[in-house]
Amino acid sequence: MAKFLRDEYLENFTVTEQILDQINDFLTERETATNLKLEQEDAGDEQLLLLNYIIRFDNRGYKPNEFSDLKKYYDQAINVERLIFTLDSTQSVSTNQLYGETHRVASCSLPLTHNKM
After folding, report:
1. Which structural domain range is residue 77 located in?
2. CA torsion sign, 30 to 34 to 35 to 40?
3. Is 2 a member of any domain?
4. pLDDT tens digits, 35-74
5. Residues of the chain with pLDDT > 70: what percent?
6. Exposed e or buried b for every residue in 69-96, given b needs 16+ CB within 10 A?
7. Is there a domain that residue 11 lies in?
8. Percent of residues, the chain, with pLDDT higher than 90
9. What is the 3-state secondary structure (H, E, C) of 27-42?
10. Is 116 a domain residue?
11. Which of 51, 65, 88, 109 suits a disulfide with 92, CB 3.0-4.6 Å?
12. 80 - beta bridge partners?
């Protein structure tokens, strides 16, 4: 399990809507295939994966539930600072993401970024 997020600043880098579609399609296929396998193995619902999105742009941040909403925000953006796709288990979404890690406070963190201008 990852314990930190390392940001890299990339210059002169363009992500088109076509690339966003490809990333989303790949992760949606991975989500579907994994969930089908988990269902065949009678894994609990807490094991199922959910595709989540985070976009930060123009000093604002959003966590849309649908890819279509992510694309709307992307179209509005003047400067996209961060775009994150995650596949999280249902259990993760309903525990750690809502409440944080309460047993190991030292492992809690708040990622901050600075956009070089």
Report:
1. 17-107
2. positive
3. no
4. 999 989 988 888 888 899 999 999 999 999 899 999 999 9
5. 75
6. ebbebbeeeeeebebebeeebeebbeee
7. no
8. 40
9. HHHHHHHHHHHHHHCC
10. no
11. 88
12. 57
Q: Are 46 and 91 in contact (CB under 8 A)?
A: yes
How many structural domains comprise the chain?
1
Please give the structure tokens belonging to residue 35.
Answer: 């969930």
Give yes or no for residue 98 having a pLDDT over 70.
Answer: no
Which residue type does 52 have? N
Give just the sign of the alpha carbon dihedral 47, 51, 52, 56. Answer: positive
| CA proximity to 63, closest of 83, 81, 49 | 83
Kindly state the tokens that stand for 88: 């999280």
Single pTM value for the model: 0.70
Q: Residue 76: what pLDDT?
A: 93
DSSP 40-92: HTT--GGG-EEEEEEEEETTEEE--SSHHHHHHHHHH-SSEEEEEEEEEEHHH
